[in-house]
Input
Amino acid sequence: MPLFIYKSKPHGNGPAAMKKDTIDKLIGRIDHIKEEDLQRFFVKLAEQQGFFQQVFEAIQEGLILLDNKGKILFVNKAALKLFDKERGQITPDDFCIFLGRDCSWDTIQQSQTAVSRDTEIFYPEHRFLNIFISPIGSKNQGHLVLIRDETPRHKKNAENIEAERLNALTLLAAGVAHEIGNPLNSIGLHLQLLARKAKQLPPKYRTDMEELLKTAESETTRLDVILKQFLQAIRPTSPIREPYNIETILMEVLKLLEPEIQQRGIQINTDLQPSLPILSLDPVQIKQVFYNLIKNAYQSIPPEGGTILLKSGYTDDSVFVTVADTGCGISPEVMGSIYEPFLTTKSTGSGLGLLIVRRIVKEHGGSITLASQPGQGTTITVFLPRVERTIRLLPSSIPS
Output
């Protein structure tokens, strides 16, 4: 008698109930079913199992299925990638460790409740994960583990927070320019008038007064520079691009900073790649980038002297310039917030230099990498996109 010709009503709801009803009837009539019908049924089950396995493998979230004894029945590729392990190597301890010390696999099995927790891992990659463990069925048939990679969402949130912070700084800039800039100009003007009056004082008073006025003027000038840097760091400006050789910019910056570098007894070493590709950039803005980076480099070197290495090169996609110094380096605590405004390790710094550098490089479609270690110097590499990128083709399979 054929297997699938009966017309009984299915119990329950959905395909799972229908499949269970079919299996129950199959078991009840096992002695009366022909061999070819039984074979056809199991072939159908195998096809369905293969289909669901393909679906689970295509899911981007990590998926692990366990039986009621904690034995892993299935692991998809996404889970293997997250844990950096092969099939058969994953155990319940691998994901329970992310649920906290108060949570073990035994407690999960006994409680029979769903558990969800966000966690952060650092190996094999720095990621933010959400671990969700849920029991299957009402009779402790096993557990389903879903591992969702929340890293893109965290990254997007961080970008949104940074954008909101810069927008807030931009709104603040207008007020700062008005509330500080105008009084600062007035103070500078009155200091100049006082300096003229001081020249009419008797010599015994004139020297002390001129020294005090000189200090006041110097501090006023420094405040004016900080104010201008602040406005420049947050005010959006579109690059005025033109074809330019970045080596020309580096030479101009070195010539400009040469007197102060020589005065400090610092040696400049260059390893510049000849015939660098021409870039489409704003020469004024990019000149400011390397002016800030080289100045930061020699200011971090102790008085006994050191070296700065300028290295350039190019890849298929970009031209890069590296500025490496033998200075004091940057601590891990500062590295985490190195681009924060007004964060500086120098007593006279404004903490806006790197913020300006990053903004200019980003507006040019480039990127920055920074590596540093306390006492061993800092290496900063700027990548700028090429005008014409090299297209790599796959080797031809047609024999010549």
User: Anything to note?
Assistant: Residues 1-18, 396-400 have pLDDT under 50 and may be disordered. The chain has eleven helices and twelve strands.
